[in-house]
């Protein structure tokens, strides 16, 4: 089943779907769009190309929403937690909000101290995307959002056409396909989905009892500002070791400086498409498997969520959800030993995620 699905996604990758319609979204209106297949129901919005909700059955057949978020679209436009958002032009952090490319020094908008986080103060999560296509009644329901990022946006060079597609391909499968095409200049691109998952249900409390397995033997250690040092470190013998399934909260108190997990994992294996992580919620029986072609995975446990009023009036607190952000390594543009994030007109960007859900 996975092999067949990968073939379908390869065909999707090879197409120019989403990139040929990258015109301005200035006439678009913010809205919510639903995709349904079997018991799985996905809602997304063109504000930030964001996931609003994902409803799945638990082991008893009871449906529940496993994505943190808001009731009101207005709340998404004022969001500072990146709930469900597509983040970019460069996800994660760029140290000193600057980099040099092809002999040109670029100064970016700093929005986390002296550093740039998730593309700057107005990254891709804070703009209105165009609805490129919406096939809600297809065998594999899908929607594609497009955005035209202009030369100099938040300090980044070059015009870039970007697309994000959400596809319900098989029973309880959600695929996310991200593409970017540089039109006239080389530029860094690193897109990620910033959904906060709680498999017990978005209003069930925290994720400290969920069991996580991450298929990575190394991390990219960071300084006090969460900027990578450029080195690699083994997870063996540390709280970051999830090579075998571990309860999220079992060692989290050893990470006092960050109040929890917020680190990039170097995914194991040479396969272009690999299993990155598995999450299990014992009470509901829900299981999430994430496959990706990205080299890294940011594991974040919602450490700084505090009194955020979410869906149905439920108030989210620290560790209310966890993020599994498949990505290039943070600050790659300033570390030549990291996999390159540079996209050119001849070398487009493609990022694929498959979330496979089940119960046990």
From TrEMBL:
Please name the pathway.
Carbohydrate metabolism; hexose metabolism
Show which residues constitute the signal peptide.
Answer: 1-22
* EC numbers: 5.1.3.3
Q: Which reaction does it catalyse?
A: alpha-D-glucose = beta-D-glucose
Record-linked InterPro entries: Aldose_1-epimerase, Aldose_1/G6P_1-epimerase, Gal_mutarotase_sf_dom, Galactose_mutarotase-like, GH-type_carb-bd
Q: Please tell me which top-level EC class this enzyme sits in.
A: isomerase
List the Pfam families: Aldose_epim
**Which branch of life, at top level?**
Eukaryota
Q: Which SUPFAM superfamilies match?
A: Galactose mutarotase-like
- What keyword terms does UniProt attach to this protein? Carbohydrate metabolism, Isomerase, Signal
Family designation: Belongs to the aldose epimerase family.
NCBIfam families attached to this UniProt entry: PRK11055.1
Q: What is this protein called?
A: Aldose 1-epimerase
Recite the lineage of the species: Eukaryota, Viridiplantae, Streptophyta, Embryophyta, Tracheophyta
């Amino acid at each position: 089943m996975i092999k067949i699905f990968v073939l379908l996604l390869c065909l999707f990758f090879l197409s120019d779907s989403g990139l040929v319609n990258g015109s301005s979204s200035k006439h678009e209106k913010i809205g919510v769009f639903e995709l349904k297949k079997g018991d799985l129901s996905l809602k997304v919005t063109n504000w930030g190309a964001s996931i609003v909700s994902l409803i799945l059955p638990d082991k008893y057949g009871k449906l529940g929403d496993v994505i943190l978020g808001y009731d009101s679209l207005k709340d998404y436009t004022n969001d500072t937690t990146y709930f469900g958002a597509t983040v970019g032009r460069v996800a994660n952090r760029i140290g000193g909000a600057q980099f040099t490319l092809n002999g040109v020094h670029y100064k970016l908008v700093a929005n986390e101290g002296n550093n740039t986080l998730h593309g700057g103060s107005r990254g891709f999560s804070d703009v209105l995307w165009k609805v490129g296509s919406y096939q809600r009644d297809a065998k594999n329901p899908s929607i594609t959002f497009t955005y035209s990022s202009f030369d100099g946006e938040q300090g980044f060079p070059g015009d870039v056409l970007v697309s994000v597609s959400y596809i319900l391909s098989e029973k309880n499968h959600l695929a996310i396909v991200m593409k970017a095409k540089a039109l006239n200049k080389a530029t860094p691109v690193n897109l990620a989905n910033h959904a906060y998952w709680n498999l017990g249900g978005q209003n069930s409390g925290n994720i400290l009892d969920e069991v996580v397995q991450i298929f990575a033997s190394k991390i990219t250690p960071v300084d006090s500002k969460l900027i990578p040092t450029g080195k690699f470190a083994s997870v063996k013998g540390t709280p970051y070791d999830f090579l075998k399934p571990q309860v999220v909260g079992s060692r989290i108190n050893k990470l006092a400086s960050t109040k929890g997990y917020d680190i990039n994992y170097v995914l194991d294996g040479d396969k272009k498409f690999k299993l990155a992580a598995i999450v299990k919620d014992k009470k509901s029986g829900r299981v999430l498997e994430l496959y990706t072609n990205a080299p890294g995975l940011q594991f974040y446990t919602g450490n700084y969520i505090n009194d955020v009023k979410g869906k149905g009036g439920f108030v989210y607190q620290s560790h209310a959800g966890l993020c599994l952000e498949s990505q290039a390594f943070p600050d790659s543009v300033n570390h030549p030993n990291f996999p390159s994030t540079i996209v050119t007109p001849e070398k487009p960007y493609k990022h694929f995620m498959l979330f496979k859900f089940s119960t046990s």
